[in-house]
Amino acid sequence: MTCVVSRTGRELQRYNHMGRRQVVGCIPYRFKNGKDSDELEVLVISSQKGQALMFPKGGWELDESAEEAASRESLEEAGVLGNVECELGKWSFISKSQGTYYEGYMFPLLVKEQLDLWPEKNVRRRIWMTAAEAKEVCQHWWMKEALDILVERLSSDLQKQQNNEDVMACTLS
Asked: DSSP assignment, residue 121?
């Protein structure tokens, strides 16, 4: 694997029609004991300049789709690769550091690989935890809302899968 470095600068940064910077983030997740488990774990990371915990996010650039940006941010900031799934939603929020409105999009990322080396390894910590723990420690309200949506979506998917298995079992009997 080639060494990847984090993108820097804002030359390609996207802004919406109201001049708000657009950012994209991911909630990296996995099931603790593999695919058949329903024990969800999510990956949070520390901020670059402090101990605050959050999900990977960053600028959405002109030369990439939102899904590509979400995948890139997860690789750069958390050192994980996986499948970006359907958007969880869009939020408007005020950046604490900039004092301006941003537009944020969040996606789930089903983690397939966790790297030992990644671009921001030396400036971030990453921690796997339950969704409930992540909701407690995450610093951004809009990311907490996205997490709630992900948990509801996965619970609904699991329920549908179990119902389908029940139907199949009845059909085969």
From this structure: T
Backbone phi and psi for residue 10, each to the nearest 5 degrees, phi listed first: -125, 20
- Give the Cα separation of 58 and 35 in Å (integer): 29
Name residue 17's amino acid: H
Mean pLDDT for 128-139 is 96
Per-residue pLDDT tens digits for 74-132 = 999 999 999 999 999 999 999 877 788 999 999 999 999 999 999 999 999 999 999 99
How far, in Å, CA of 27 to CA of 109, rounded?
A: 6
In the chain, DSSP assigns E strands to 21-31, 40-46, 53-54, 57-59, 80-84, 89-94, 101-114, 126-129
Determine whether 173 is exposed, middle or buried from the number of CB atoms within 10 Å of its CB (0-12, 13-18, 19+). exposed
- pTM, two decimals, is 0.85
Rounded to whole angstroms, the Cα distance separating 79 from 58 reads 14
Task: Output the CA torsion 43→46→52→57 (10° steps).
Answer: -70
